[in-house]
Amino acid sequence: MSIATAVTLDNRFARELPEMAVPWQAEPVAEPRLLALDEALATDLGLDPAWLRGPDGVRLLVGAVVPDGATPVAQAYSGHQFGGFSPRLGDGRALLLGELAAGGLARDLHLKGSGRTPFARGGDGLAAVGPMLREFVISRAMHALGIPTTRALAVVATGQIVRRETLLPGAVLARVASSHLRVGSFQYATTTGDKDLLRRLADHAIARHHPAAADAERPCLALFEAVLAAQASLIARWMLAGFVHGVMNTDNMTISGETIDYGPCAFMEAYDPATVYSSIDHGGRYAYGNQPLIAEWNLARLAEALLPLIDDDQDRAVELAVASLGGFRRMYEAAWSDGMRAKLGLPAGHDDAQLVADLLTLLQTGRVDHTSAYRALATAARGDSAPIRALLPDPLAGAWVRRWLALGPDADAMDRVNPVYIPRNHLVEEALAAATGGDLAPFTRLVEVVSDPFTERPGLDRYAGPAPADFGAYQTFCGT
Question: Residue 427 in 3-state DSSP?
Answer without folding.
Answer: helix
